Structure formats: structure tokens, C-alpha cells
UniProtKB/TrEMBL annotation:
This is Class I SAM-dependent methyltransferase. It comes from Nocardioides plantarum. Pfam families: Methyltransf_25 (PF13649). CDD domains: AdoMet_MTases. GO terms for molecular function: methyltransferase activity. The keyword Aminoacyl-tRNA synthetase does not apply. Keywords: Methyltransferase, Transferase. Signal peptide: none annotated. Residues 25-122 form the Methyltransferase domain. One of its GO terms (biological process) is methylation.
Amino acid sequence: MVAQQIPARIRWAVDFMDPQPADHVLEIGCGAGAAAELICSRLETGKLFAIDRSESGVDRTKRRNADAIKAGRLTVRQIDLATLRVPVKRLTKVFAFNVNLFWVRECADEVALLHERVVPGGAVHLFFETKIPEDVPKIVKGASAALSQGGFRVSVVDNKQPPVVGIIGRR
């Protein structure tokens, strides 16, 4: 099997999030499974629970990360965040890349669910690729407001290369 490329933007975001060996991580919108691959490579006793609304995204993540699933480090489910019941009682980190839920529409219920599950000192990491610079203020404002209204302390990181903006909500 040919090794699949991991985009620089995903590498940068996962490096920034800095998953630790014992972390319990939720990935929202796992897509092709590249971030899951990087996160699982850093886990020892920790686990990643990856979700996506798309059946094809779930299938791709499962295929790409079959070894991590067999090892018990990864669980993948086709589900929407709004209806999620996280099997891990306490999460240390939440990761999402290009998930527009947090700045496009009302998401108070989803953020409340995250606030309930993220441990004190844990964080929600929302990353967005910024191909259209004019969108950055709208993304930052919307995602920051959603997290802060949900009880998270928000900080923003703006990386130029690769062009990624991160909105980090700490509990």
C-alpha cells in the first residue's frame, strides 16, 4: 500500500495542538483521516474518537487508520456533533479542521456538549485554512463568540505558512 501524503496545514495544526500519549481526543469532521493518522501516532494509552457526518469520510478514515483501530487507539463513527454521545467521559482535547459549524450557524448546544466533556485545563482546537483572507475576520469572530459564550477562554493563532487560523478555547 502506498503511504498517503499528509498536507502541511494538517501537520501544522496537529503539531500546534500537541497531542500527548495519554490524551483522550475528539476529532470533529475526520474526512480523509490524515489528522487521525498523526494524532494516533502520538497516542500510547490515550484514544481518539473521530466523527464525520459523511459516510465516505468515515470509510476513508477507517481504511487509512486500520492499524490504529485494531490497536484500540481509534474509534470512528458516522454521526453529527449535535447528536453525539461521546463514549469517553472526559476529553483532554478536541480537534476540528475546516468545520464551518462553529462560525456559520448557531451551535450553542454543540459547544455546551464540548464544555461538558472537556476536562478543566483541556481545550477545543478549531482550525481553518485561510485561502480567502477576507473571510478570516468573520471566521474568527463567529468561532470565538461561540466558544466564549459556551464558557471557554479563547485565544487566536494566525499562521501564514501554511495559511491557517486557529481558534483555541480552553476550559
